[in-house]
Amino acid sequence: MRTRLVLESQQGRLIQSTHRRRASFTRQTENSLKRATIPTMHFQKSMPRLPIPKLEDTIKRFTLAVEPILSAQEFNDFKLLLKDFEKNDGVFLNGKLKEYAEKNSHSSYITDFWFDMYLKDRRQIVFTHTPVIVAVLPPNLNPSGPHTQSIRCTNTIISALRFKEALETGTLYPDIYHMNPKNANNPTYDALCRFTPRKFSYFMSYFQNSYPLDMSQYKNLFSSTRLPCPEKDKLVVNPASRNVIFLRNGHLYSVDVLSPTGEVIDPKELLQNIEYILEDSSNPAFPAPVFTTTDRDTWTTVRERLMGLDANDDLFRLIDGALFHVSLEDSTCNSGPGNEKEVESAVKKLLIGDGRNRWFDKSLNMVFLKDGNFGLQFEHSWGDGISVVRFLNDVCKDSFQHPALPYDLTSLDVLPIKRTPSQVQKEVKRLKIRLDEHSQEVCKNAMLEFDKKASSLHFSVYRGAPGFGKSFAKQAKISPDSLMQLCIQLGYYQISNGQTVATYESCSTAGFKHGRTETIRACTNETKRFTEAFFRENVSKSELKRLMKECSKKHGELTRNAATGQGCDRHLFAMKQLALAGACERIPELFKNEIYDKVHQFILSTSTVPSDYCSAGAFCPVVPTGLGVGYEIAEETVGFAVTSYNGTRCSEFTDSMTDITQKLQNILT
């Protein structure tokens, strides 16, 4: 979910409105997301390939990475095993990996293995592969207005369709990481790149210290879904899609938002369609969406059975092939001071809901609360946070600055067009999936199983006091992300009686063709030394500050290595997958060793979304005893949204943050 690269398209602050706008229904004819100075896929052909690191570098980096989380005996034993792998099995597998990469020169050596990791996973994806990003509210939206939910939903959908149009016409500006900020919004830079042939365009940008990013994931942003299949699911895309699926209280509705010629629905008509759906307060006895919360083998069997009943196959085509899904919820989120419990409840609603009102297979799900709060949930197999965050940023910015309908609309009676409920009903198709008795029984069991698992998932949030944020970290010459990772290490050390554990932080490798992510192992020897000193008495402030600087330096090194394809985890992962696929006569001892499994049990899974339009990010822990730590670092404050399957672990963690952040601030001042 995390992206460490700040894109040109993600820049820009929120524009705060200082006055109430009068309702205006002038329809926007220009798509503000179209920027044709450089075609969307202009750099794709010349993108560099993800490099395979030297085997000796990978072993050295991995050895250092696991040392702080192992006992002395474990580390010595494991180090010998790593050395043996480097001299023997690793040499053979690394050679095979290079051969594999050459045969797949159109892509990345990690791509197919990464897709398989997700699509072969038979667990419940709702608890493993569906994070949520929570967007900020529009500056002039009234959370308690009578039509807040439908107006926010309408404006967001229309802006999403503008994004889709720009993407498909090649006028969506490419993702570019500018090391030279003067190149951003620079007509000269754009012209040089645009008129350079695509075969060489990346290098033209590279020599100007600007780095284009891979755009291949965007093809799965719209009209795609994950289909349950035996042994391995598959991703499918419906290029002819024109509809959006709305979910309300477990019911499914299909609404065409594009005409057969591709014209976008009138926003006023869409608003009335949404209002019509919101009026339905009934609850189905057997909500079909809950099937998507089951394990993949169960869902595969049920779906095959349902497809054989009456017209269900036509309904599934509408559901699977929709542009995206929209869930309409009745809950609210008052995020004011002292309302942490309400915020925690709302984040849980946005992340997993009640299991009845979300189709978790869908690549893109928009979830709207009654007060206009909006979360963007995505199924992780098709892509990573970098493309989803770009989409969220552009859609929020467009819907805030160029809303299709005014946010201060208080009465639908002022709409220029009016339709009777029967006219609206013709455009809103309620989908009734037929279930036989066996499927109904599976549905009941699925609801019980989901409710049991969901009740064991706990949430806790922390919102820091002003003065401890990105600007403070920069002033202290400490990496802001390193500072946040230190907070996480200190918090866990305190609640676990002095443990240091495997910590996962994801880094985008979108600087390479079909790049996905690399692991930053944020628990290092440097963070361990600082953590132990932090909780030890009589350690001087100057010594603690020196240790913090070392942590920041190491974190920067790990980040650079990961972003440039010089991490260690993906290299080892790819070699293991080749071994499991039969590339060698036997599975190397390294990959069968229990310590190898232990260092891949990420007790702390951490992620952040650097965006002005994001208020929070949340996801479930990746292991039963772990924490899922979503964190945000703004200019003047920090925040955490933490999940756990132990009722007190996440709240103990967030409770520790006030004291920890105050002490860190004192060390650095």
Q: Give the overall shape.
A: globular
What is the spatial order of strands in the main beta sheet?
A: 11-7-6-8-9-10-1-16
- Return the average pLDDT rounded to an integer: 93
Proportion of beta-strand residues: 5-15%
Distance between the termini: 33 Å
Can you offer a commentary on this structure?
The chain is α+β, with helices and mostly antiparallel strands and 669 residues long. Helix content is 41%, strand content 13%. It has 22 helices and 18 strands. The chain has helices at residues 55-66, 72-87, 89-103, 111-119, 148-168, 187-194, 201-206, 267-278, 296-307, 312-321, 340-351, 385-401, 421-427, 437-456, 470-475, 480-495, 525-534, 541-563, 569-580, 589-592, 594-598, 649-668, and strands spanning 132-135, 176-178, 210-212, 224-227, 234-237, 243-248, 251-256, 325-328, 364-368, 374-378, 428-431, 458-463, 503-508, 517-521, 604-608, 614-618, 627-633, 638-644. The strands form 4 sheets. It has an 8-stranded mixed β-sheet, sandwiched between helices. The protein has a 6-stranded mixed β-sheet with strand order 12-18-17-15-13-14. Strand 17 (627-633) and strand 18 form a beta hairpin. Helix 1 packs antiparallel against helix 2 and helix 16 packs across helix 22. Mean pLDDT is 93; it is low at 1-27.
